[in-house]
């Protein structure tokens, strides 16, 4: 039973709707637990091929729940270990798409950055306002943003805590697709359905190799890629894909 999200599927797309509209989907710890547990559940569900996380028209999520954080102490944070659950998102094997309308601030921006792809509205409002609360990003914001924009731009945005126009996020490759707000969901679903037709084993092997490229040396990354390339040849979808090519017909991938 979830209190702060709604989860459902449409064909083979697993959808998580953040559902705390009265506080612009501010993320309390229970809500983050629910999101991650649902991602893991979709990841284990053979009927699901792609996942989507979305908010509502006004907000993807306006950050971590400030009411919950206001009385935190270094020791309470150490004992609660609130970021361990976030690390589990990087263990999800299937593609995750964030659909961003409205605010994606602080922890909300970090949740989108934990997803593989971001589809955003042209007027979406990204940003890290934590500095204005006397703190800083804590769920990977400094790292994700610096890897995407380089240190100078990342420092400018995180130091000033000012909104990042969606167009800038798009130009830096943080956002994959930028569309009018009324078309965001449609575009994300189109992308999800396109991915759902791809061979699922290839998708997960590609996801692992691409994310590894962010941290590994070129040679270590190439070695990992090579192993994953070999593993793909254990799949029936490899046989189907290559056979379909020789028979001049479209392939049907079954995820085996
Ligand atoms: C708790 C929040 C909230 C948040 C909004 N609300 N953001 N509550 N935590 N992060 C609540 C407001 O208190 C208000 O409740 C209701 O949502 C509607 O918000 P308004 O401020 O009335 O809306 P608006 O005037 O449109 O302004 C929108 C806003 C503003 C610009 C997004 O709400 C805002 O600045 N929010 C805080 C954004 C922020 O600082 N995020 C970073 C948090 S720190 P009431 O009861 O008054 O109706 C963080 C650290 C991450 O994320 C660490 C890792 C997880």
Automatic annotation (TrEMBL):
PROSITE patterns per UniProt: ENOYL_COA_HYDRATASE
Protein name (Swiss-Prot/TrEMBL): Enoyl-CoA hydratase
InterPro entries reported for this sequence: ClpP/crotonase-like_dom_sf (IPR029045), Enoyl-CoA_hyd/isom_CS (IPR018376), Enoyl-CoA_hydra/iso (IPR001753), Enoyl-CoA_hydra_C (IPR014748)
GO terms under biological process: fatty acid beta-oxidation
Keywords carried by this UniProt record: Lyase
Domain of life (superkingdom): Bacteria
Species per Swiss-Prot/TrEMBL record: Ornithinibacillus bavariensis
GO MF annotations in UniProt: hydro-lyase activity
Family, per entry: Belongs to the enoyl-CoA hydratase/isomerase family.
